[in-house]
Write a structure and sequence with these properties.
The chain is an all-beta fold. The protein has no helices and 14 strands. The protein is globular.
């Protein structure tokens, strides 16, 4: 399956997919309001595409049926998105009202509107990285007037 995003008629984000075999394209489908693809995921044995559609995060199956995962004011500002199992990690830089703040969100893809955790910072040393069941991040800690960077590892269930 090849997946791409486009701005269709009336400037609506569309998700376009093509099912390909050795003999060429088998079918193609365009799905309005399905958004910009971020990552491929498998949930409950079904291949799906994790997509951002404005302020909505959706999962689209290979037929193009979207299912809303979460709505968040941070989604238009996402710079990176990764998924492993039921967990998605989104990070980016929000800039509404002239503010420039970094954010990270952990989302449960199996339940609607389930934000596992989120953080907002003035500085983000690096985007978190998802490796298998572990989320690695560099975090800044301050104590006794001293500041240090720490590599943290969080095991995801």
């Amino acid at each position: 399956v090849a997946v791409a995003a486009a701005a269709g008629a009336e400037r609506v984000e569309e998700l376009c997919s093509v099912l390909v075999s050795r003999r060429g394209a088998l079918n193609q489908a365009t799905h309005a309001n399905a958004g910009v693809p971020l990552d491929a995921v498998t949930l409950a044995g079904r291949a799906q595409v994790l997509s951002r559609a404005g302020r909505r995060l959706v999962l689209c199956d290979l037929v193009g049926q979207p299912r809303r995962v979460v709505t968040s004011e941070f989604l238009p500002w996402v710079m990176r998105a990764h998924a492993h199992g039921r967990v998605a990690v989104l990070s980016g830089r929000e800039a509404t009202e002239g503010r420039r703040r970094w954010f990270v969100q952990l989302l449960d893809l199996g339940e609607e509107n389930r934000i596992i955790d989120q953080g907002i910072w003035d500085a983000l040393p690096a985007h978190p990285q998802l490796l298998g069941r572990y989320l690695f991040a560099i975090e800044q800690f301050s104590a006794d007037g001293q500041s240090a960077l720490w590599l943290t590892r969080r095991r995801l269930a």
